[in-house]
Specification:
The complex is a heterodimer of chains A (283) and B (313). Chain A is mainly alpha-helical and 283 residues long. Chain A has 10 helices and no strands. The chains are: A mainly alpha (283), B mainly alpha (313).
Chain lengths: 283, 313
């Protein structure tokens, strides 16, 4: 498929020229490397309590200080990257698996099915994602899996809407008519002929919504209904430091910098790719 | 126009109805029952059953649902599952704090965001543009509780200018504003990030229109082109579309109320969630949804007033 290659090459060239996207991509790679390999290079065991070094400020021994139990903030922040990325990636994947086929079904079938799905999606989208996440978290309960499900379902309506819109126009294309005429089943039509055309948009928006999922996890963990302790999540770490803001601000501020860096990197990449896809916005 | 407004209202009613139903159902599938939560884990089965009966939890779910809808239609939000007090007065008590925070947040966001959006659009691809675009992207990336925490660290812990917690005395305007300052700044800065981006893209959209080229070709000064021709048209869409950020605004307020221990709907919601006070949770969620649906409706109508083409879509 030589044409696609040139298109991909063209996109890559534009991407390289887009400085913000490039900076974001480097950030995302750094975070991914940190999450994958970081835990092998942690200076201390993240749950080990150094009881003689409680609340000790950043030093050569503990570069980012220790928390109230004497646990190393750097090691915990590094492990936290694994938790946050895992939640972000898995919940977005879940939302894709649930949302994309539903959106295609709504767009392809039309009629009552479409009206029903669209109405529910509209209502769910009118809730702020934080509030929807809160409700779902309360309703689902559970530990890591429950959290991933809650965040995944909270962002699913976005993927349904994203997949539905192009399906409606693809449905009318000649090659779909042709496939129908030769007797291709509806399921096959939706998955083999329509889905590949929708996945491009889905891949792009996933980048932005991974950032959303990571932020949502941090919010829920900060409220105290996210990742159950003692697993270090950035949100949980920030929360544990709030009471020591006056004498040990590093406990809260350091993990916050990790969140900010991660979310911003994903946002930069998402923004960059959007510029490439919609050159009108490129300015 | 009247027909359009009526149609929009008619769409908003089923939306609200579906939202109330979703909230009701979600509150019913929450694991653990409220009676056990209210009495504690060591309560006898008889006591739990008696309380369940009194709370009406033993009735079939559709009966509970119909009762709930009837109550809502009469403005009765029911009683708290935990302390059996009516929910409505509790909500009324904290509502002014949340209203203060949302209004001041949107005000700060608009005052800072619109000029920044215009400057970045007019000076696009300059260093000012890059700086503020990066800052607004940072604003979108900040979890609201973390930005609140940093503001608290700087303005109350280090500088000691503002209190870090509480909502102040509602009857004392000075005290109320004093306590509002940091939470409002937090919500306001987040809104600034969104509004800056939106204004910038609306301005760029307008600047690329043919009538702007015509205005330039006529030999008008750049200032006149921007202020008289571009700004007017961009602002209409910006001001009306700000309404669509109500969800982000509410979420920002919830997190700010928590970090600043400020009374309000958000703090009440999280407290209810932790106490498994599902009736309280349900009522707060319905009120929040109601606010969002109404604001969206007003936004739609306002937009159609400003841009009559919308009606025909």
């Amino acid at each position: 498929m030589p044409r696609e290659t040139t298109q991909a090459k063209r996109m890559w060239r534009t991407f390289k020229k887009n400085r913000t996207a490039l900076v974001g991509a480097i950030g995302v790679i750094v975070v991914l490397l940190l999450a994958i390999f970081g835990p092998f290079f942690m200076p201390y065991d993240p749950v080990e309590q150094h009881l003689l070094d409680q609340l000790s400020p950043p030093s050569a021994r503990f570069p980012f200080g220790t928390d109230v139990f004497g646990r190393d903030v750097l090691s915990r922040s590094i492990l936290g990257s694994r938790v946050s990325l895992a939640v972000g990636l898995v919940s977005v994947m879940f939302a894709v698996v649930l949302g994309v086929p539903t959106g295609i079904l709504a767009g392809y079938k039309g009629g009552l099915i479409d009206t029903g799905i669209t109405r529910v999606v509209d209502v769910l989208m009118s809730f702020p994602v934080l509030i929807l996440g809160l409700m779902l978290r309360a309703a689902i309960g559970g530990g890591f899996i429950g959290l991933v499900l809650a965040i995944g379902i909270a962002i699913t309506p976005r993927f349904i809407r994203l997949a539905r819109a192009p399906t409606i126009s693809i449905r009318e294309k000649e090659y779909i008519e042709a496939a129908k005429a030769v007797g291709v089943s509806e399921i096959r039509l939706m998955f083999r002929h329509i889905m590949p055309n929708v996945l491009g948009d889905v891949a792009v928006m996933s980048t932005l919504w991974i950032a959303l999922a990571i932020r949502l996890e941090a919010n829920l963990s900060f409220i105290g209904i996210g990742i159950p302790p003692p697993t270090p999540s950035w949100g949980v770490m920030i929360r544990s430091g709030v009471d020591f803001l006056t004498n040990a601000p590093w406990i809260s501020t350091i993990p916050g910098i990790f969140i900010l860096f991660t979310v911003m990197s994903f946002n930069l990449v998402g923004d960059g790719i959007r510029d490439i896809i919609d050159p009108r916005l490129q300015q | 126009m009247i027909g359009y407004i009526i149609r929009k209202i008619l769409i908003a009613i089923p939306t609200m109805f579906v939202a109330v139903t979703i909230i009701f159902l979600m509150m019913r599938v929450i694991p653990g029952d409220p009676a056990t939560a209210a009495l504690g884990n060591y309560a006898s089965e008889i006591a739990v059953q008696a309380l369940k009966e009194r709370m009406g939890l033993n009735r079939p779910i559709y009966v509970q649902y119909i009762d709930y809808l009837k109550g809502l239609a009469q403005g009765d939000l029911g009683k708290s599952f935990v302390n059996r007090n009516p929910v409505a007065p509790l909500i009324r008590k904290v509502l002014p704090y949340t209203i203060d925070l949302t209004l001041s947040g949107i005000l700060i966001g608009t005052i800072l965001g619109i000029p920044l959006g215009i400057i970045t659009a007019v000076k696009r691809n300059s260093s000012i543009d890059y700086i503020f675009r990066t800052l607004s992207l940072a604003g979108l990336s900040f979890p609201a509780f973390y930005s609140g925490l940093l503001l608290m660290l700087v303005f109350s812990v280090y500088l000691g200018l503002f209190p870090s917690i509480g909502g102040g005395d509602l009857n004392n305007v000075g005290d109320r504003l004093y306590h509002l300052a940091l939470p409002a700044l937090n919500v306001g800065l987040i809104m600034t990030a969104y509004i800056t981006r939106m204004t910038r893209s609306a301005m760029l959209d307008v600047i690329q229109q043919d009538y702007i080229s015509t205005a330039r070709a006529k030999g008008l000064s750049e200032n006149r082109v921007i202020v008289k021709h571009a700004l007017k048209n961009a602002l209409i869409s910006v001001i009306t579309v700000i309404g669509l950020y109500i969800g982000i605004l509410i979420a920002g307020c919830v997190m700010s109320e928590i970090i600043f221990s400020r009374p309000g709907l958000g703090k009440l919601l999280i407290g209810a969630m932790k106490n498994r006070d599902y009736n309280m949770m349900q009522s707060i969620l319905v009120i929040m949804t109601g606010i969002i649906v109404v604001v969206n409706l007003i936004t739609d109508i306002a937009y159609s007033f400003c841009d009559p083409r919308i009606k025909y879509e």
